[in-house]
Amino acid sequence: MNTKFSPGQVVRVRPDAHDGHHRTPWFIKGKMGRIHSVAGEFFNPESRAYGGDGLPKQPLYAVEFEQRDVWATEYRGPDSDTLVVDIYEHWLVKAN
To answer: pTM score, two decimals?
Structure first.
C-alpha cells in the first residue's frame, strides 16, 4: 500500500466546502491532528455514492485530534481528551 502519511505525522484536514456525500465531518475541517494509524485502502465512498466505481482506492487513516482544538472554547473536559476520526487521504494535507 502506498500512503502519503505515516503514524505520528501531523496533518491538517482540508477546510473545503463540499456538496453532496462525503465522509469528513464538518467539525474537523481545517483542524490539525496526528496520524494514529493506517486502516488500509478502500473504495472512495464519495465516488460510489453517485454510482462510480470508487477507484482508485483511497488510503484511510485514523487521525487523532485534541478535543480542546476541535471544540475550542466550548470544550470543558480535561486537556488530555482526544477524538479519533477515520479520514480518507484525499482530505488530508501535510501540516505546516
So the answer is: 0.90
